[in-house]
Automatic annotation (TrEMBL):
This is alpha-glucosidase. GO terms for biological process: carbohydrate metabolic process; N-glycan processing. Residues 645-654 have a biased composition (Low complexity). Pfam families: Glyco_hydro_31_2nd, Glyco_hydro_31_3rd. It comes from the Eukaryota. Residues 504-599 form the Glycosyl hydrolase family 31 C-terminal domain.
Length: 846
């Protein structure tokens, strides 16, 4: 028996000091904002691990109990429970939080949404299960029907007649609610570095040679990959009569892969991890190469050739499934499994969901492959609250539609409301829909700023995601964003550590950081990517007039100005928070960073498969405010030494590496002195590294006075940036090193005339209509700005053109003749006008 498969950290019992109970009820005051409620017909209560709750032992908070014969009240600083001591009912059990009152109804509640089990077949929006965040002062997670685990780590079920749930009384403090969600359910695991790069996947009958040629074509294009996904046709699909469906299989299709060992060896030579697709529902049948071995392990007579049915409730079957069947394929070179369960949530034992069983035990079993994986890993579908402990999630076979693309950023962000931070979507869509260069480019752009970037599509000969199969402009854009994804890995790995140890998922809805701002709830497709970056993906077709796509965004207050990292000539004031309509050509998307942002990128001239730790780092620096960033990298193994890289602390389900084992490099920017400090590196190996500093949105000549040993300065004025390139710096310098770039540097002022002229020049519209637009915007034009804005709106010009002009004209209040404060947006659908006053009336609570 594999002990690691049935052993995981947990502490399900509750601190007795936090418990208030009677003969049929029990309340656990886990914190002064988190309450567990239970009702039991038989008088017993559940102290075993559930799929949601692994850790229920908290320090008891301060609370008061007021009790009489027929009533009970529990009062903390944040909630007030009232209960009539009878079976739970809406009239007998309530919890007041702030000005809201929850009355028991046996349901989960979280109106900001969570996520869904799958996007299979989705054309656009799908219904979301609740998360633990809400616009009300409370959210509720009903845990009454979840699967359990016994003390020996095997599955168990609940006893009938028992109710079990949790009230999150956080009154808009979304991050506090999520922190306590992770405390009770376990943290997000640390992902291995290589997962954060590009994945190739397609449902297609590849031969070994065809698959390897595609991998080599990516290399010739200079596009790095980290994961080769091999969909179900790796195994036998066309079965002999009498064996049923070919969806399940564990025997290599020798017609396509005559030498599986050689094929997998070639993928390893290319520094690719390999995952094989598994639809396990049909079990192990007699045609399988490993049938006899599995039958003998289960004391079956293989000569009878009886099918061994899939039964997740049979421990002996599960052990043979992992330790005979899958282990043999893993030894061949399957690094981890893509578990593609689509057969519902029922098993032989009511209350046991096969997907939960598969996710839990695949993840724990993957510990035996740590030499290859570095960290435990599986790739499967979402099974419910607690699924964040088993990354990475596969969201399913979504249709290739603009509606699907528009919903995906919201779907990804709200998943964090139930702690689920590592979704992998079918980037580009899986099936159906329409072939569109624009749609695929915009989807890859979203994928670049998603938790996992996995290109995927179905078997159609017309539908594949190789960049070179698209038109030149689209192919170039796709390639650029796939390369950018790998450059982002130093940042992404740091965010990976932040997600696990600080309970901050990589992707977060805007309202997580601005819970009291109504506007933050009105931009569902916009999200935070890490602590600073604002992503507003373009999810609709480009305008035929401007040749640009548009996105409506909200710029939060308190962070100064924002610059677009991918279009640094655009700088936006945010003041007290403002809406903007952002427009970008196909090669760009809106990626905004506030003043005081540091973003480390892999600066290697050529990016390699597997994403080795870079020897060159490019720091994107947005000046204007002080900035800090600590670059975190995986623990290093020194020759001849062992590194203590595990910890088994409470509220941790996966024995994460000890924080002390990570390599850390602090990076800080002092706005007043103009000094950038890098290092010293902590816990590193002492190797050399080359550094580059790119001031995004700053092209001032004062940077020519940069001071640092071995530096040279290059001016990249065309891109709206200044780059300072340094020589090699020893990473073990005990004091780090400093670069003096210039005192109190500021972002460049937007050149309205240049920006509008360039934009109008590209517009495909009547020439005679360009002149009146241009005449209104030029700073030499007479007349009040507000009046000129109104005259612009009255022109018989495409609404998209008006909005694109307005964006540049109103972006930066420092610009000569700026329209900031007077901006008005045209309705691109109805060509009506959305004024600033109309925006405020529609979206802002007075």
């Amino acid at each position: 028996m594999a002990d690691y498969r049935y052993d995981f950290p947990n502490q399900p019992e509750t601190n007795p000091k936090a418990i208030v109970k009677g003969s049929h009820y029990r309340f656990s005051v886990l914190t002064d904002q988190l309450l567990r409620y239970e009702w039991s017909e038989d008088g017993g209560f559940e102290d075993r691990v559930s799929t949601f709750a692994l850790f229920r032992w908290f320090d008891a908070p301060h609370y008061r109990v007021v009790e009489s014969k027929n009533s009970l009240e529990i009062i903390t600083d944040h909630f007030h429970l009232r209960y009539d001591k009878r079976a739970f009912s809406s009239s007998g059990l309530s919890v007041t939080v702030g000005s809201d009152v929850w009355q028991y109804d046996g349901k989960s509640y979280g109106d900001l949404g969570g996520t869904a089990r799958t996007l299979d077949g989705a054309y656009g929006r799908v219904a979301l299960e609740p998360g633990v965040l809400s616009r009300k002062a409370y959210a509720v997670l009903d845990d009454s029907k979840s699967m359990l685990f016994d003390e020996d780590g095997w599955i168990a079920t609940r006893r009938p007649g028992r109710l079990d749930g949790y009230v999150f009384a956080y009154n808009g403090d979304h991050k506090a609610a999520i922190r306590d969600f992770y405390r009770i359910s376990g943290s997000q695991p640390v992902l291995p570095r290589w997962t954060l790069g590009n994945w190739w996947s397609r449902y297609h009958e590849y031969s070994a040679g065809e698959y390897l040629e595609i991998m080599d074509h990516f290399k010739r294009e200079g596009i790095p990959l980290n994961v080769g996904v091999v969909d179900m046709d790796w195994h036998k699909v066309n079965l002999p009569p009498g064996y049923g469906s070919g969806w399940t299989g564990y025997s290599w299709n020798r017609d396509l892969f005559p030498d599986p060992d050689g094929f997998l060896k070639e993928l390893r030579k290319r520094n690719l991890k390999v995952t094989l697709n598994d639809h396990p529902a049909d079990g192990i049948r007699a045609f399988e190469d490993l049938y006899e071995a599995v039958a003998k392990a289960l004391n079956r007579d293989p000569s009878k050739k009886e099918a061994i049915e899939f039964d997740c409730t049979d421990r002996e079957f599960l052990d043979a499934y992992f330790d005979v069947l899958k282990l043999a394929l893993e030894k061949q070179g399957c690094d981890f499994w893509w578990v593609d369960w689509q057969q519902g949530n029922r098993s032989k034992i009511p209350g046991v969901d096969p997907l939960w069983v598969l996710n839990h035990y695949h993840y724990l079993t993957s510990k035996r492959s740590l030499k290859t994986l570095q960290r435990p890993l599986t790739f499967s579908r979402y099974a419910g609250a607690g699924s964040h402990r088993y990354p990475i999630g596969f969201s399913g076979d979504q249709q290739t539609t603009w509606e699907g693309l528009e919903f995906q950023p919201e779907f990804t962000a709200t998943a964090s409301n139930i702690g689920y931070g590592w979704w992998s979507h079918d980037i580009g869509g899986h099936w159906g829909g329409v072939r569109s260069n624009q749609l695929n480019v915009r989807w890859v752009q979203l994928g670049c700023f998603s938790p996992i970037l996995r290109l995927h599509s179905n078997k159609s000969p017309w539908n594949s995601r190789e960049p070179w199969n698209y038109e030149p402009e689209a192919a170039r854009a796709i390639k650029d964003f796939l390369i950018l994804r790998h450059r982002l890995i130093p940042f992404l790995y740091t965010m990976n550590i932040r997600a696990s140890y600080e309970h901050e998922p990589l992707v977060q809805p805007m309202y997580w950081n601005h819970p009291d701002a109504h506007e933050a709830y009105t931009v569902p497709t916009q999200y935070y990517f890490g602590p600073d970056l604002l992503v507003a993906p373009i999810t609709s077709p480009d305008s035929a007039a401007t040749l640009m796509g548009g996105a409506r965004a909200w710029l939060p207050p308190g962070r100064g100005r924002y610059v677009d990292l991918l279009h640094p000539r655009l700088v936006y004031d945010s003041d007290g928070g403002r809406y903007m309509r952002l427009h970008r050509p196909l090669a760009r998307m809106p990626l905004l960073a506030p003043e005081g942002t540091i973003l480390p990128l892999d600066g290697s001239a050529r990016l390699a498969n597997g994403s080795p730790r870079p020897t060159e780092i490019t720091i994107l620096l947005v000046v204007g405010r002080n900035a800090q960033f600590e670059l975190v990298e995986e623990p290093e193994q020194h020759h001849g030494e062992s590194v203590d890289n595990t910890t088994n602390n409470n509220n941790n389900n996966n024995e994460r590496p000890a924080l002390r084992s990570f390599v850390r490099t602090p990076i800080s920017w002092n706005q007043a002195s103009g000094v950038l400090t890098i290092g010293p590196e902590w816990n590193g190996s002492g190797r050399w590294r080359q550094w580059h500093v790119k001031l995004v949105g700053h092209t001032g000549s004062d940077v020519a006075a940069a001071v640092a040993p071995g530096f040279r300065v290059t001016r990249d004025l065309d891109e709206g940036c200044t780059t300072v390139a340094l020589g090699n710096v020893h990473r073990w310098n005990p004091e780090g090193f400093e670069i003096a770039l210039g005192r109190d540097l500021q972002l460049d002022v937007v050149d309205v005339e240049r920006g509008v002229f360039d934009m109008l020049h590209r517009c495909e519209m009547l020439y005679e209509l360009k002149d009146p637009v241009w005449d209104l915007v030029r700073s030499a034009t007479e007349g009040d700005v507000r009046d000129r804005v109104q005259r612009l709106l009255g022109l018989k010009v495409d609404a998209a053109v008006k909005n694109a002009v307005m964006e540049i004209w109103a972006a930066d209040g420092r610009s000569k003749g700026s329209a900031k404060g007077h901006e008005v947006w045209a309705d691109v659908k109805g060509d009506s006008v959305e004024s600033l006053e109309q925006v405020l009336e529609e979206y802002v609570i007075v």
